[in-house]
């Protein structure tokens, strides 16, 4: 991970650290590593999304562990210095700055940790389509609904999950959402 961190420019690394802190403070639902990775690649750095996600997970673990143990900035930096693989100087400076400025605000109560362990629903998009034809069938005229759910997993990584439903399946899906809404109104 230290070798990959060396590749990331300091400003992008700082942005990643700040997004992780905001996620741990429940100010944002997750870290959009795909978008950040694309911007880093556009700046000329050869990094893949899997490596960036591993770094984000590692930093998230680092910050949450530091919060649980109530580490001061100096204790955190000392702990980082005693690690097996040495982090680049710019990374330690960013971590020091971000932790010093925002680290104390991380409030990891038991309830917040339980919610974070499940993941979080961020957004839902849907669209109606009609399949006109295929290789095996000349005239389908088959309506369907495509649903895309945006979800932040426990580590904060934002991913999209898409699926298609027939109209009867979508009506059942909609009915279940209406039932949930009516139950939530009684709470």
UniProtKB/TrEMBL annotation:
Transmembrane segments: none annotated. PROSITE patterns: COMM. It comes from the Eukaryota. Scaffold protein in the commander complex that is essential for endosomal recycling of transmembrane cargos; the commander complex is composed of the CCC subcomplex and the retriever subcomplex. May modulate activity of cullin-RING E3 ubiquitin ligase (CRL) complexes. Down-regulates activation of NF-kappa-B. Inhibits TNF-induced NFKB1 activation. PANTHER family: COMM DOMAIN-CONTAINING PROTEIN 4-8 FAMILY MEMBER (PTHR16231), COMM DOMAIN-CONTAINING PROTEIN 6 (PTHR16231:SF5). Belongs to the COMM domain-containing protein 6 family. This is COMM domain-containing protein 6. The gene is Commd6.
């Amino acid at each position: 991970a230290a070798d990959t961190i060396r590749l990331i420019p300091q400003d992008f690394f700082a942005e990643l650290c700040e997004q992780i802190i905001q996620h741990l403070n429940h100010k944002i639902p997750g870290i959009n590593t795909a978008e950040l990775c694309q911007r880093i690649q556009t700046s000329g750095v050869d990094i893949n999304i899997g490596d960036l996600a591993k770094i984000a997970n590692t930093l998230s673990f680092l910050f949450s562990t530091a919060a649980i143990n109530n580490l001061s900035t100096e204790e955190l930096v000392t702990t980082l210095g005693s690690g097996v693989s040495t982090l680049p100087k710019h990374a330690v400076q960013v971590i020091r700055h971000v932790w010093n400025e925002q680290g104390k605000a991380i409030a990891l109560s038991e309830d917040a940790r339980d919610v974070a362990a499940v993941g979080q629903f961020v957004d839902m998009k849907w669209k109606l389509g009609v399949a006109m034809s295929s290789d095996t069938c000349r005239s389908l005229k088959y309506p369907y609904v495509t649903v895309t759910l945006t979800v932040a997993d426990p580590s904060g990584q934002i991913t999209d999950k898409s699926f298609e439903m027939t109209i009867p399946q979508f009506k059942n899906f909609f009915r279940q959402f209406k039932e949930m809404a009516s139950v939530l109104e009684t709470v």
